[in-house]
Amino acid sequence: MSDLAEVKAVARKAAFARRAVAHRVCAPGAAARLSGVLAGYRGVPVSGYLPIRTEIDPRPAMAEAAAHGVVGVPVIEGAGLPLKFSRWEPDCALREGPFGAMVPEVDDFIEPEILIVPLVAFDRAGGRLGYGGGFYDRTLEILRAARPTLAIGFAYGAQEAAGLPLEPTDQPLDMVVTEAEVIEFGRT
């Protein structure tokens, strides 16, 4: 394991612990804050995610966005591949996908222009530490090469960390929405 991989593993472990505590406390207002951000983009195709483990839950904001346009969720097709996004609607039939994440039972792929991105940790410069598979980094790189694509990190404020171990291939976030604030990074 490289030194950077070891540093990332330590950072992830600490961030998972902070996220678990924040998850137990709950995050009132986080989904409403995310809905408020998405309201400025009505009708633009959005990708959210169906939360696993202690991830903050974007489904209330996704349901509101689905009333105004297309919403998808990520589908992992294999290691080293970019994500695809299958159309999601509240109460749609689901099946289990890789890593325990649920995905729509029937694939109906869309191409989002806004991605609500789960994360393990974020910093005030738009850096994001994910799970280590590189799925969002690969996907954002491809989408951003084709057209402007907004990456919104959705997290508990406790997931903020300084000095994240980042690599040149890590795609930056355009903003982060937490239960307490919206942090914009000015890249859009």
UniProtKB/TrEMBL annotation:
Organism superkingdom: Bacteria
Catalysed reactions, as listed in the record: (6S)-5-formyl-5,6,7,8-tetrahydrofolate + ATP = (6R)-5,10-methenyltetrahydrofolate + ADP + phosphate
Cofactors: Mg(2+)
Pfam family, one: 5-FTHF_cyc-lig
Annotated EC: 6.3.3.2
Enzyme class: ligase
Protein name per UniProt: 5-formyltetrahydrofolate cyclo-ligase
Organism: Roseovarius azorensis
Transmembrane segments: none
One GO MF term: 5-formyltetrahydrofolate cyclo-ligase activity
Keyword annotations: ATP-binding, Ligase, Magnesium, Metal-binding, Nucleotide-binding
InterPro entries linked: FTHF_cligase (IPR002698), FTHF_cligase-like_sf (IPR024185), NagB/RpiA_transferase-like (IPR037171)
Any Gene Ontology biological process: folic acid-containing compound biosynthetic process
NCBIfam families reported in the protein's UniProt record: MTHFS_bact (TIGR02727)
UniProt entry tagged with the keyword Membrane: no
Family: Belongs to the 5-formyltetrahydrofolate cyclo-ligase family.
Keyword match ATP-binding: yes
